[in-house]
Design brief:
mainly alpha, 5 helices, 64% helix
Length: 176
């Protein structure tokens, strides 16, 4: 499906505003682009069956896009709360991807036999038999998962109240 010119120009405007909001810092800009891209992908996927001329964009989406752009432009101009929010969102995106890389990719470095295999370490078969260090690590991992889900809930509440879009963190589909 060909992207309509109005959506493409709005996306380019977002790209420039996101870059300016983090002072053209390359890593922060890349993270924010990853977080804001789903906003446009969702819009286009909802209208994937419609023709280019029949693309329907809800008025609430336009309102959200306008408020988000004004938030990002104020972040680029002044170094107040909006700038702190965008800077922290970029660093949270970086931490999220580092966490997922460590959590999922470290398991892929070596072959893990099935649990019924004789080569499988018996100490890892049950949670009851885990060492204290492994239990503590499992508790930290669960706390980490809860913290990220709570942070996502807070972001959604802020988006609902102020009608702005703060981005979505998406894991790497190859690692999930």
């Amino acid at each position: 499906m060909k992207i309509p010119p109005s959506i493409a120009s709005l996306y380019r405007l977002y790209l420039r505003t996101l870059s300016a909001s983090v002072l053209h810092h390359a890593a922060a800009k890349r993270q924010l682009l990853k977080m804001y891209r789903p906003m446009f992908q969702n819009l286009l996927s909802q209208n994937s069956t419609a023709s280019e001329s029949a693309l329907t964009v809800p008025s609430s989406w336009h309102t959200t896009a306008d408020k988000t752009l004004s938030f990002l432009s104020s972040s680029a101009i002044a170094r107040g709360v909006p700038h702190q929010v965008t800077r922290n969102l970029a660093s949270l995106g970086t931490r999220f991807h580092e966490r997922n890389r460590q959590k999922y990719m470290k398991k892929a470095k070596h072959w893990i036999p099935p649990p019924e295999d004789a080569k499988f370490p018996p100490s890892l078969r049950n949670d009851d038999e885990l060492s204290p260090k492994a239990k503590q690590q499992k508790a930290w991992d669960e706390l980490d998962d809860h913290a990220w889900s709570d942070l996502g809930a807070v972001i959604k509440l802020a988006e609902g109240r102020d009608k702005i879009f703060l981005g979505r963190l998406q894991g790497n589909p190859r690692s999930l």
